[in-house]
Amino acid sequence: MASKRTPQEQSVDPAAQQMLIRAEELHIETAFSRADAMAPCNIGGAGMCCKQCGMGPCRLTKEGQVGVCGATIDTIQARNFIRSIAAGSAAHSDHGRDMAFTLKAVANGETEGYTIRDVAKLRIIASKYNIPIEKRSPEEIANELADLYIAQFGQQRGEVIPTVRAPKKRLKIWRENGVVPRGIDREVVEALHRTHIGDDQNYEHILQHAIRTGLSDGWGGSMIATDVSDILFGTPAPILGQANLGVLKDDMVNVIVHGHEPTLSQMIVAASQDPEIIEYAKQAGAKGISLSGICCTANEILVRQGIPAAGNFLHQELAIITGAVEAMVVDVQCVMQALVDLASKFHTKVITTSPKVRITGATHIEFDEHKALTIAKNILKEAIDNYKNRGKTQIPQITEDLIPGFSHEYINYMLGGTYRASFRPLNDAIISGRIRGVAAIVGCNNPRSSQDYLHNYVTKALLKQDVLVVQTGCGAIASAKLGLMLGEAGLTEVGPGLREICETVGIPPVLHMGSCVDNTRILTVLTQMVEEGGLGDDIDQVPAVGLAPEWMSEKALAIAAYCVASGAYVIFGGSSPISGMPDRVSDSDKVLNYISSGWEKLYGGKLEFISDPDEMIKATLAHIDAKRAALGIQVYDATKYGRSGDAKMLALEELPLSEQRKAIYGTAAD
Q: What is the pLDDT of residue 649?
């Protein structure tokens, strides 16, 4: 049994610590306490257990040992690895499929409450695929785009259409290696077929298809999901928001949306602002509806409407423990089964909404886009009716302001305005050395590590080294809770070169780019940087690194695969799912070495698992500096750029942070 940690060791978030203390006082278990009590299987955790048939499970714990069928450790590890990538790709891509179906229904006037909000993006995306746009209504264009996107899932031959948006050199590499996805569903199915008993038994061959499967997500299903979300709900632009459990209100009906699909959450936002629903809440004795989000659903409504984020993945139980949540409305992915039992100890209703997801004991109200607004109102009325059952509450009075909404379109605009929108200033800042490089710090929370610690430690260290940070998913919410997504963070938290950029452009040093599927925005940014010129002619030449310090889901492995295939160096924290045993180096390192050096030779990107945060930072900076040297651009010199030349900024930096905020915003921080 693992040792029991204190709340301060389980999370670095003070709001989470308060709720963990309350959980102990009430003798309630959480994911944190279950992680402490549950010793992970060291054989399965190292990828040395095969259960693909009924002759096993086979556990390979001795040098030279093979399974009943003769499968070697490298075959078993590769099979386990690709199956995780297939599951992660299926989860993200199925989200994209649903979005494409919704776009089709909206285009045909078959839904309730939805409209095409970003006609400009619709026209831009359609043009990329040679869909005619002149003298056509938005509905006509959307109908044809929806048909094209829906076809990508069942397509059997050819190439998944969004791959044409990759750099030309990158697409050529994929074609030469035979990994351009033919159809999204086909690659996932083939991954499962190849790993059935008696099929693919060459680990390199298996891992080549892992790349193809990951690409079907990143340059397929996830990219489709982001495109359609922007078209239907609006492309994000900076907006003021708040994060952490303090966004819950004692005098209002608190509804939390949790999961990943924005079709539901966007409609609940609309319904919560309906005068009929507000009046219904007042009749129940509340002042109104307080809506907030958890996980990637939080990010979806945060970046578009500024709806507050109650927290990231590991806050879902803690929010219920406040005793102030009338309903937690969930759809798909990252929803803990433990929520229902926990909710029974309070008054919270857990409401499942997806036809794909039911949880024993939860209330099920199935969501249907054709009756979206009506269903959303019914869900909110269910929560309002529960308000009278609320007992004692304990809401941590901790929140942090943030500015999310940095889509790749907005980054392009902010660097040049409407007239000269361009990535040229960003490229020039990297070439000159003001910005050393770019780090995408994304991914989940994992209760086996201290919540947010690795995200925050790595982020703050890289900012001091003039590395611009972009974030999505739960990692983004971690930085939001720390205050790194405000402009004034650029005054105190970053190196001198990056400080000049933040100050000049007026941006935070950490840019919130959306939910996990919106990692495709990062791919688009990298592509645009390449197309702008000066940083090579492919993504693998850009001084950039992707990190997932607290990863835990199969979706994270799918993201890693498509980022590596795109040419990125990817670092995962925590433990490796294919690490082998320490005393079995000769056998168990083949797969681990191949996803690093083997993939790097083919794609210019590689995946490594590094548990120590200082080593993670060291590897990131070494890679960025090596890419700078290979490009022949300025050697990074932290002393080259000095303090701000802006007299107001110089005066502000001498003040305490709370006074800085007061001077900037006109009011003191909460």
A: 54
Range 482-488 average pLDDT: 94
Residue-wise pLDDT for 552-604, tens only, equals 999 999 999 999 999 999 999 988 998 865 555 455 689 999 999 999 999 99
Q: Kindly list the distances between the CA atom of residue 277 and the CA atoms of 268, 270, 378, 436, in Å, as whole numbers in the listed order.
A: 11, 10, 9, 50
Classify 60 as helix, strand or coil.
coil
> What span, in angstroms and rounded, lies between the C-alpha atoms of 138 and 449?
47
More confident residue, 464 or 419: 464
Report which of 435, 526, 439 is spatially closest to residue 475, judged by C-alpha positions: 439
SS3 track for 206-266: HHHHHHHHHHHHHHHHHHHHHHHHHHHHCCCCCCCEEECHHHCCCCCEEEEEECCCHHHHH
Tokens coding 665:
């915003």
| DSSP 3-state percent helix, strand, coil across the chain (nearest 5) | 50, 10, 40
The sign one gets for the Cα dihedral 386, 336, 268, 321 is: positive
Rounded Cα–Cα distance for residues 390 and 395 (Å)? 13
Q: Residue for token digits 């995306």?
A: 125
**DSSP for residue 33:** H
At residue 18, φ and ψ (nearest 5 deg) are -60, -40
658 exposed, middle or buried (CB, 10 Å; 0-12, 13-18, 19+)?
exposed
Average pLDDT over residues 470-486: 96
State how far Cα 470 lies from the chain centre. 11
Closest CA to 378 of 285, 271, 256: 271
Task: Classify strands 58-59 and 49-50 as parallel, antiparallel or unpaired.
Answer: antiparallel
Number of H helices and E strands in the chain, helices first, is: 31, 16
Q: Hey, what are 147's tokens?
A: 């048909």
CB 542 within 8 A of CB 535: yes
- In angstroms, the first-to-last Cα distance of the chain is 41
Give 264-288 as a 3 state SS string: HHHHHHHHHCCHHHHHHHHHCCCCC
Instruction: Summarize pLDDT for 365-380 with one digit per residue, the tens.
Output: 999 999 999 999 999 9
Q: Which residues contact 380 (CB under 8 A, 6 or more apart)?
A: 253, 255, 268, 271, 272, 277, 280, 289
Q: Is 55 helix (H, G, I), strand (E, B) or coil?
A: coil
Q: Which residues pair with 469 in a beta bridge?
A: 439, 510
Domains and CATH numbers, the chain: 7-59 (no CATH), 241-389 (3.40.50.2030), 403-573+610-648 (3.40.50.2030)
Q: Is the pTM value of this prediction over 0.70? A: yes
- The C-alpha angle with vertex 422 and arms to 417 and 426, in degrees rounded to 5, equals 105
How much is the CA Rg of the chain, to the nearest whole Å? 24
DSSP category for residue 346: S
Strand locations in 1-132 (E): 49-50, 58-59
